[in-house]
Write a structure and sequence with these properties.
By secondary structure, this protein is an alpha/beta fold. It has 13 helices and 15 strands. Helix 6 runs antiparallel to helix 7, helix 6 crosses helix 8 and helix 8 packs parallel to helix 10.
């Protein structure tokens, strides 16, 4: 056993003062154990002048791990040693609280003594004074005490490990029950059964339950502080947060050991508030954060059924922005159309296919611009149409295939004319009308209906290809009155639904297959 693994044990000497010199010799022979930290020793000579000797002897006797009975005729003759110290020592030994070792110093008939049943030292029970070499006798005694101490340490370490495991099991269950800030009567019954099974004391389990509930309260306070810090950062600098703010929040989480799932939940809660525009009458406009980045705009030459207008592919850098989770719906349109006019009048119910949660259609490019202007005035934020580059970047969401869900498309994934196929795909349903937004799976950015359902207006004017196109994601404008459309529709072939496909109509055009979704400037400051 290494020194590092040893736990110091307290050794008590019960002896007659007539054996003082022999006791001192034994203490010297135990000095190596004391230096190694295996034991510490105590005898009544350590009682300071004026100390209450009876109290100090009892206190040390009742707290000792090993009690050495230094047996001699004078020890047997001492009423205090024999009637008080031996009696207490034997009781503690039988209770498993201490290890009692008789040390036979001088010849005496000790067989009738209550400690005669205990294994004594030195070996062969030959009294120390009877050895030809007393140094060897004390060495033998010291070795025996070392063996007893190491055995006792192992036993106590094992008991401690068992107790620690039991406490850990109970604590885990208590913390689980306390995770909502309370422990119900039913949960307490379960804990009581577990306590009995594990052999834990009431004082131990009550302390564990209290700590679990206290920890819950403290943890909730830390969570509240994190939430407040996040809100303050958003108010101060907008969203998304800059690198310094994110670093501070991460350090806060790590320092206070906040769980990832709690931090994610808080972020989602705040983002839900941040990215949900309450338009009134129970109607909301949901916004999705789009991270900045670079992408290859356009389609490769080997993409099936592509058009020359999708060339040349070119790298575009996009700054972070926010985009409508869905195309603007008819219920959203109706509320905004009732707001104060900015430039032109708006028809509050223009759509050919009616449905509050269907996309608004039969709206011109100018109608969409007016919608954004009125919404901006209402909210204090800058709403607009996406640039063509922003739209394709958001649609692809990091993918490079013809569709964000892969190489082909089916009517289980989007609303288009299912009588036609794309790239070895299968035929499907032709619904002949729009569907409610959000019916089909979203892309990796969380945007819905980017393929099919309705064409979506972009800011840009039409250009026949990408020669000299901007590389910064800004709208590409000219004197042309034709405006960009993206995404395909319920009416068109699947090839028109590809991420890279481009189309156009006149800005004044109103068709039942054309609508739009909005974009918000990159800094949202308040809820």
């Amino acid at each position: 056993m290494t020194e590092a693994s040893l736990v110091s044990l307290k050794v008590f000497f019960s002896y007659s003062h007539a054996d003082e010199l022999l006791k001192n010799e034994l203490v010297k022979n135990l000095s190596i154990l004391k230096r190694q930290g295996v034991i510490s020793t105590w005898d009544d000579r350590e009682i300071p002048p004026g100390g209450e000797w009876n109290h100090q002897i009892n206190e040390n006797l009742n707290t000792a791990d090993i009690i050495l009975l230094l047996v001699s005729s004078d020890f047997i003759n001492s009423d205090y040693c024999y009637d008080v110290e031996v009696k207490t020592a034997i009781q503690r030994h039988e209770a498993g609280e201490a290890c009692v070792i008789p040390i036979i110093l001088r010849s005496v008939d000790w067989r009738p003594a209550p400690f005669a049943k205990l294994q004594a030292l030195p070996k062969n029970l030959l009294p120390v004074k009877s050895w030809n070499n007393q140094d060897e006798a004390f060495t033998n005694v010291a070795q025996g005490i070392r063996s007893a101490a190491e055995k006792l340490i192992k036993e106590r370490q094992k008991k401690r490990e068992i107790k620690e495991a039991a406490i850990a099991e109970y604590r885990q269950k208590a913390e689980y029950f306390a995770s909502d800030g309370k422990i119900s009567f039913l949960e307490l019954d379960i804990l009581n059964d577990l306590q009995e099974k594990l052999g834990l004391a009431d004082s131990e389990t009550s302390a564990i339950r209290k700590n679990a509930l206290d920890s819950y309260t403290i943890y909730k306070q830390k969570i509240a502080t994190y939430r407040l810090s996040l809100i303050n950062f958003i108010h101060e600098q907008g969203y998304p947060l800059d690198e310094n703010a994110e670093t501070e929040l991460k350090q806060f989480q790590q320092h206070y050991k906040l769980k990832d799932e709690d931090v994610v939940r808080i972020r989602k809660e705040q983002e839900a508030k941040l990215f949900t525009e309450n338009l009134g009458n129970g109607v909301v406009l949901e916004i999705v954060p789009i991270p900045g980045g670079k992408f290859l705009m356009g389609s490769p030459y080997n993409e099936p059924e592509r058009y020359d207008s999708e060339s040349p592919q070119h790298t575009v850098t996009i700054q972070p922005f926010f985009m409508g989770k869905f195309p603007v719906t008819q219920s959203q349109w109706a509320i905004v159309a009732a707001l104060e006019k900015v430039n032109i009048d708006l028809n509050p119910d223009p759509s050919g296919f009616k449905g509050a949660n269907r996309p608004v259609e039969c709206v011109s490019w100018d109608d969409a611009i007016e919608f954004c202007a009125r919404l901006s005035n209402k909210t204090g934020k800058t709403y607009r149409l996406p640039s063509e580059a922003e739209w394709e970047y958001a649609c692809r969401a990091g993918t490079t295939t013809p569709f964000y869900f892969g190489e082909t498309i089916t009517t289980n994934l989007a609303n288009y004319d299912g009588n036609y196929t794309y790239n070895s795909g299968s035929k499907g349903e032709y619904r002949e009308q729009t569907t409610d937004v959000g019916k089909f799976p979203p892309n990796p950015f969380g945007l819905f209906d980017m393929h099919g359902n309705i064409w979506e207006w972009c800011q840009d004017t039409w250009h026949k290809n990408y020669n000299k196109a901007p590389a910064d994601g800004s709208p590409w404008m000219s004197e042309n009155h034709n405006r960009l459309l993206r995404g395909g529709s319920w009416y068109h072939f699947p090839r028109y639904c590809r991420s890279g496909h481009r189309a156009w109509i006149a800005r004044v055009g109103r068709k039942n297959l054309v609508g739009f979704r909005v974009v918000v400037a990159a800094s949202l400051r308040t809820y």
